[in-house]
Predict the structure.
Amino acid sequence: MTGVDRLRRQGVRRLLPPVSPWGLLWLTVVWVLLWGSLNVLNLLGGLLVALLVLVLFPLPRVDLHLRVRPLGLLVLLGRFLLDLVRASVEVAWLSVRPGPVATGVVMDLQLATDDPLLQTLTAEMVSLVPGSVVIELDPGNRVLTLHALNVRTRHQAEQVRHKVRAQEARVLRALHPDPASVLDPRRHRNGSRGEAPESTTTEETP
Amino acid sequence: MSAVDVLDVLGLVCLLLGALLCLAAAIGLLRFPDLLTRMHAGTKPQVLGVLLVILGVGLRSRSGLDIGMLVLIGLFQLLTIPAGSHMVGRAGFRTGQIAPAHIHLGQRDGDGDDPPQG
Amino acid sequence: MSIDLVELVLTWIVGGLLAVSATLTLIRITIGPSVLDRVVATDVLVSIVICALGAYAALSDAWTTLPLLISLSLVGFLGSVAVARFVARDRDTPAAEPVPDRLEVGGRDAGPQPPAGGRRTPEGEGSV
């Protein structure tokens, strides 16, 4: 059966070059999982449907220059789950605790990477963790605008920024081909923060 | 008490935690003062609550392909929730539904004088 | 103490918790005060429904609800995206004039408001 679908895949690739094998694989896996049983018919049907989808609704090509590091990925996912649980408990406590209700602030934050995919990934993970909601992402200027819960002092705001940057660093370490080149100069700049009169990209109007 | 029973009870505990998160979110939804803070409350059941319930279902089902389907549910949830919450948050931000406490902090520390209050 | 009894008690507790959460969320949907608040609350309601269906599947071994869960988790966000798109229409460029922040058509003024009438002021004036 592997011979059949390899043959099929190769023949199709000759006919229709833009179909990506990863998309095909992913859609087939989803199809099989949706059917709930693994057999030849499901596999072939899934391949057929995946091909149809990929041919009829072609996606723009995304240039992925990523390098997946298993260890970094593990750290990323593990830390994400930990953050998720911790932040959920925190926000749950904030919402049920007696006394004054929590408020939050909107803040801007400079990201380190230019890669739109990694930026998106960072923003998604920040958004999934309770306590921070991403409002805006400006890929060109690398500015992430987010709303953070229960921030009252500048110190707390700085802590949130630090968290988001750490999240981004983990994403970079898991997927970026050369994380040191992106992370190090920024750290350097952070050390002399305050003096550098950079062009402020803060949004003035909501 | 056999191992299967332990798994069953663990699954029940996951369900219970998920339900508790839902309750906390609902209370937060009622108590929090404005749109964006309410969105924070809503993220909990949408992400961790659903994940916990899925985990509970998986612990009690123990058949491989059901678990595949459960993984898909979790994946779809994780992929789609940020899109929705981002759109709602942006819409709220742009239409100005933000309490005055939500001071827009600038990019870095040094560019403001007084700390935001409250 | 048998497993069955534990299961029974926990089942009732889970069901009760979810029912109370759904009711509270419905209250938020009812009182608003803005369209977006209702959208957020509706999203929460969808995830409570997902949790409830999952709990039902786990507690009564009704595995046929799983496809339902998949479709819910796939399309649950579409409604909120559509409404957010509609509310935020024409605001893709930052507006110079203060944005009208009252989204209701009227008649909601007597309804509960956030403290200090906060929603009246456009946000930008608070920039530090």
User: Anything to note?
Assistant: DSSP finds three helices and one strand in chain B. Chain B has one domain: 3-97. The two ends of chain B are 52 Å apart (CA to CA). Residues 3-97 of chain B form one domain.
